[in-house]
Every structure is written in structure tokens, then in C-alpha cells.
Amino acid sequence: MVNKVEKFPWFGKYWPDYVEKNIDYPEIPLYKILDDSANKYPNHIYLLFFNRAFSFSQVNNMANQFANALKSLRVQKGDRVALYMPNVPYFPIAFFGALKAGATVVAANPLYTAPELEYQMNDSGAKILIVLDHPNFYPKAAKIQKNTNIEQIIYANLKDVLPKTKALIGGLLGKIPKAKEKNPQHIDFFKLIKNQPTTIQEPQINPKEDVAVILYTGGTTGFPKGAMLTHYNLIANLYAMQAWVWPPADPGKNTIMGVLPFFHSFGLSTCMLFAALTGIRLVLLPDPRAGNPPFTEILKAITKYRATYFHAVPTLYTAILNHPQIDKFDLSSLKACLSGAAPLPIELMKQFEEKTGARIVEGYGMTETSPVLTANPMKGERRPGSVGLPFPNTIIKIVDVEDPNKELPLGEVGEIAAKGPQVMKGYWNKPEENQKVFNDNGYLLTGDIGYMDEDGFLYITDRKKDMIIASGYKIFPREVEEVLYAHPKVQLATVVGVPDPKRGETAKAYIVPKKGETLTEEEIIKFCKERLAPYKVPKLVEFRDELPTSAVGKVLRRVLRDEERKKLQTTSQ
Question: Per the count of CB atoms within 10 A, which of 36, 166, 329, 503 is most buried?
């Protein structure tokens, strides 16, 4: 059954001629994309990790083995299986394996502190946690287990997925990082799957109803919530993406860079799952900043593997463009690049394209939409400054900010609302949040403010809430403020986003200390670092005797933001 869209007037004018307006998306389990590629291209390389290649058939066989192993651990359909690791081969293997066992995957941010990980595990009710055997990951997982419902922790050692020579030498010299101590009840990944069969009994999946993945996001406001994405949500977005990409993905010949983190919907869908669907190579880079100077490893990998596709956030394009050694690398293989998660400066787009010969298009979406809602065509009309046209089968409307059931005409500014096959089922165990985020007509209210021009191109002008986007990461002030208020010397605190030349925005904390107490910026930052992921920690701290408030005592963030903008204007003059 196809989700027909309304016939908008711009389809005939600027709709890309190589894309169908309505696509009949297959109603299949998400893991079928790996099955199909393994059957069609068994010997084609799927994963490249530090020069070690994993074919589609190898990854599929290990995913099947892991599925059987999970069943031996009494994992049943609908149970949540969590992944806590960066972009390493274990991620796609365990991801597809969990789906093949009928489980729902919960992806945890590798930057999470122990308290943040504990919150997510408790909120999702995860039963199994797969973690990288590394000093930065395993100890946190082991520490929080007793406070959660996690029945088993499976640890994955880097040595087992590195090239044999590198693994041997690294092991002998002790250069491969791993946790110093292990709980003897926890299980090694490869030991667990070693004797498992490579065929499975498939679970009974209803693609439109069964949840494949729970990805955590702040949504449009508040603490992290789990967006429930069904198998069909992700399948629909992937097939739309496949139709949109130009030049088309050529199985066995094209390569995509896996730099965006897979715990996030942007990296998960547009890189890891897209490669699985199209049969192309995926280069895994756990740390985008790796190299000396930073980001050198990205440039090396693009040059070495002749990467075709590169999807990233604007700050990453900036880092590459300003890399002091960029002229030493051949980036001419790049053909198509997608930018998202934050506004793409037009000048940056022009400079990157001049340097590489690639074409960058800006898109727009959310974790709640699997993630892509709109994108500029990769061939044909493109509007710099716009986030493009609605994806196939997707309806975008602009609604009144005060009355989300009232649609506004083209050209008027309002809240962006969306409906389509990629829109989430809802938030995990948050029925009250679902009532807030969907209007009476079933449209998802994105929380973003913008308008649509007469040709159907969407423009984002502001954010409805006070969310901060730093280097593509979303920071929600309330979460940071809760940590600040936990400090015994803090009387009043608020957090706002201020302009930052490198990150786009950064978090700044305004603090009123308790009477008679003294505080330093270093003390506050250290306190936050112990309780928040690094990207959430305020980079700037200002102490005041009082903060601007409304008549009812609410701190006025907009006043503080306006002060920062005026400071910036003054210094730039």
C-alpha cells in the first residue's frame, strides 16, 4: 500500500526528474536489507575498519549468529537490546542481529556519562547491553547494571575486528585499549557467537507496527525521550533516500564515509543502513577528530578508499576545509555530500564544492522522522539557504504557532509540521508527550519555525524552543540547568546558546551564587563534566548578582541571548 501525497503545484516545476513523487515502499523487516545484499553481493565489501574488510555475507552470518545467541539468553520479541559503542564493526553486526532476534535496538550515545547511560537503560527497560571493551565504555556499563533491569552485559574487544597483523602486534605491545577488569559473569562477544549457527528462524514482524529502534532525543523540549521508529519508518526513508541520491549508488563500486555516529539517526540511516541497502562499502571511523592535526584520518580515508559519498554536519565540513594539510590529499572522488543537523553557511558550501568538485545539498529532518523530511535535489534545481523539497510521500505544512491545527499559506512563517511514512510511531512510554507533538490531523509538530516558498522549498528561520545546537549535537538547557542546580553553592542558574565560530552555537551558563559563597568557572565546568556528556558541558560561565526574570519569576533567556548578540555586533564593528 502506498502513502499518497497531496498534489502540490511545485511538483511539476522543480521536482527532480529522476525521482518518483510517490514510491511504493516495501513492507518488510528492516534486517531484510542486509539479507538481500548478502544474497545479491555476498563477496562485496560492506565494512572497512582500519584496513580490515568484512563482506556482506560475513556480516550477515555474524548477525545471524548473534541473533541465535540472544535467543539463547532468553531474548524475546520486543525486548530491548542496547548498544553502547562508537562506529566499530560490532555496531552493525549487533544491530542487525538484535533485529533478527525480534528485539528492539536502543542506541546509546558513546559520550554518555554513567548517570546518563543509567537513565536511558532504565527508561527503555533494556534487557541486554552490548558495550565496547574499552576503558571509556565497559566500566560505566558495569557500574550501572545493578541499578537497572539489564540481565546481561556483552563486551566486544577491538582486537577481534582489527587486521590480524595489527591485532597481533597491538596485543603483544599492549596498545589495543581494553578494560582492566571484567565481571566474570559478563560475556565476550565472539565467544558468545562462536558456536552459533549462521541461519535463523525469522521472527514474525509487522513492519508498520513493530518498533525496530528506539533513538533518544530531547524532541522539541525537555529531557531525552525515546523516539520509536518502526521497521517501515526506516525502510520508507531508506528507499526514498536511495531514489534521491545522485549519482545512484553502484553496488560494489561506491564507498560512503561512516563518520557520523551511528547512535544518531543521521549517521544510522544515511550511512550505515544506506550502505546495507545499496550494497556499497562503508568506511568506519570511530573518532572523526583522529589524526595529527585533528581530522587527518578522514582525509586519509577519503583519499585511500576513493569515497563517493560523505554525509556530515557543517562544523565537520568547516574542519576539513580549514585543515592545514588539505592540499596533500586527493578528494576528487567525492560526488555527493549531504549536510544536516545545523544550518549550512552558503559560503562554506561554495568553498567546499570548489575544493572537492563534489555537490553538497542541505537537508532537514529529526530523530522522530527517521530522519529525513526534506532535501535539496542532488541533480537539478537547488536553493542555497533552503533545506529543500519534501521527500517522496511526505507532506510538509506550515501551521500557526499558537494554533497548530491552523494551516498557513505559502510564504508565511509558522511552525513546520510533517506527515509521512517516516514519521515515528511516538515516544516510548510518553503518551502525554505524544499528545503535545502531534496535532489533531496527525501531523508531527517539529518545534522548528520556517516557511515554504511558492516552489515548495522549505526554509528554517528559528527554533520554537530554546534548544542549542553545538557542532550538530542538540543540547537542552533544562537538562544542564538541573545539573547546575545540584551544585551546593548555586542559587539560580540558566543556560542559553550563544554564537560560536567553531561550533555554530555553544552553551553558556549564567549563575547567581548563594549568598556568602564564591564560585569559579573551573569549579562549575568540572562539576558538569562529571555529570554530563562533553558536548553538553557549558563552555562559558558568567556569574551575576541577579538574572532577568518575568513578572512571575521565570528567567528570560531571550534577554540574555539578545545581550550576547549585541556584544558580538559591538566586537565585530
Answer: 503
